[in-house]
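Hello again,

I reread your note about wanting to compare the complex against the isolated chains. To keep things tidy I'm splitting this into two emails, and this first one only covers the full assembly. Below are the input lines as submitted, including protein chains and any nucleic acid or small-molecule components. They are followed by the predicted structure of everything together. The single-chain runs will come separately.
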Amino acid sequence: MSIRTPLRPLARILQARSTGENPDAIERENLRLRRETMRDATRLRAEGRLLVLGLCFVSAFAVVGMRMGQVAASNPEEPRAVTTGTAILAQRADILDRNGRILATNRTTHSLYAQPHEMVDPVHAAKELAKIFPDMDEARLIKDFTGTRKFVWIQKQLAPEQQQAVHDIGEPGLLFGPRESRLYPNGKLAAHILGGTKFGREGVMSAEIVGQSGIERYSDDYLRDPANGDKPLQLSIDLSVQSTMREVLFGGMHLLGAKGAAAILMDVHTGELISMVSLPDFDPNSRPTFAGQNAGDNPRFSRAVQGVYELGSTFKIFAAAQGMELGLFKPDSMVAATPPFRWGKHKIGEFEGHNYGPYVSLTDMIVKSSNVATAHVAQQIGVDRQKSFLKSLGFFDPTPVELIEAKGAKPLLPPHWSELSTITIGFGHGLSASPLHLATAYSSLLNGGTRVTPTLLKHEGPIKLGPRIVSPEVSAASRQMLRAVVGEGTASFGDVRGYQVAGKTGTADKPREDGKGYYKDKTITTFASVFPANEPKYVLVVTLDEAVETTGPKPRRTAGWTAVPVAAEVIRRVAPILGIRPDIETLALGQ
Amino acid sequence: MRSVYIVFSALFVMGLAVWAYKENYATQEVLREISQVQRQIGLQRQELAVQRAEWAYQNRPDRLRDLVELNFDRLGLLPLLPEQFGTVANVAFPVEEDVLIELEDSVAVSGSLEAVNQ
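Full-complex prediction:
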């Protein structure tokens, strides 16, 4: 730091005074000089700072620019030194049953394509290929191989032995591409639940697998998400139970000459579907095409979920339960039952012209399946209350089960819900719903009275109770009535010793396809049951389409002779697998 | 003295260069190994998936049921039925096969206990 120059140096002041100049001018001059020096120093410092800042920016831009250039110019490369914990293995997650057994998985196969311009002997290759794949047209292959095409798909999927045979042709123009394909190791078992897959966008090196129906389509987003490659989808289905139920149902269907059959086994508390079978079924590994007219004949059609039927007398318990819930009736209240029940010009009678009148108790109404008494009960309940009750049981909407087909299966409700509709719906006519609707409603009514949601996904953790539908007492009373149906009523064949089966039969004439009334000799028979009655665990619904029992002098088409014995056999075989011990005392008494 | 420093630092730099060269190749070698191992892991996972699929296919209920029927003579397996459940009370007590109790005149018998028990 330089020595500070005095503003008024004495020598110059004295000299100025002697010459008569103004000494203040000297001071001002010096002040000016001092300020100029200060200004120069400040400017220099500011310039220096600007320079440094500028350099910083330039280097930052240079770094970013260089990195961008490097990224743009270099070849992309996987970070090889980084180990990923789980390499992506499959492009689609597996599907497991509730015990972890595989229902759907992937396998690697190969596709076969040709590049004709690489071929050495196209005609020979075409001839050999036609030998390996009998369904291929030799002339067509020769035309493709000798034409101007540069690329020809030959097969989308090859079996290993076919691949070896193609290898053995030794033609360099025949090439293989890797393919993943979906494999259902259990074949037809659970076909309607799993649905199936197809190839989406296809390339030489890979092809997309997309769900085509069933849960494969419903959960497509989850299954296709690469992050879920090693997180399989676990269903509530039990493979052993499913297999047993299909075996029994298949046997029953053939024994009774039924056209189709469906069975649903549901956990009453969680709404989990332990097993769901619809017959006839198909192999999801090679989904069949269907050219028929009637959708119900399509093997891909799931009778359990998609089929909406009038489920007949199984609905009577809803009328009885609602009557009890509203306080209109008690199980031993007497209800008028003298046929016919008249409403306007309509007459309602009993099955086969029975007469249970003049009065039956509410329990006997269910046990004897009296249409007339139910009509009286339904009339007292009334249109609005019945509608809201059935709505709370889920009969107004498609079931929310995790299948793509479920959305389309909307129950058929009467367009004008008159009092007559209420009366007929009371005993199960005029409202069509799927067996799954019925199973859900029975579970909700009989598990203690809380609504369940049907699901195909395994339930974890504590059970969350749904909205209350009826009181626990009404639920218990309904179970007792249904138990009496099996004990002494129309479903006596359903009494599996030790399991306290409770249930209700339902027989409905099939409506004619032309809409002119009903067939006389074609029925849909249903048995909806719950077991064990004292401590309900499972609901089983069995539906047979056009079943007939012919051991007697007259063919019998009622549920008590068709669906009930099949359901009983299902319970006898399935309950032990589910680990339910038979009630030993009851068993001993029965023996 | 100064030239000694220069020579040493030159040698040091050369040593570093050799080390860096070797490290570079060693790294590349390790990377190659890793990619090979990862490829192997991928293949083995694929094989595992095939094995699992095969296992599921071989254990499909249809096939097991057929096998049970075919081998009924040897295995005698039946479906699980309610009658097969029992209580502990139904299980018979093991039959006492103690020879010592059956001896009448025990004093007259001589010998060691171990021999009897065998």
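For quick reference: The interface with chain B takes residues 80-81, 83, 87, 89-90, 101-102, 105-108, 183, 185-187, 189, 239-240, 242-244, 247, 496-499, 572-573, 575-577, 581-582, 584, 587 of chain A (CB under 8 Å).

B.
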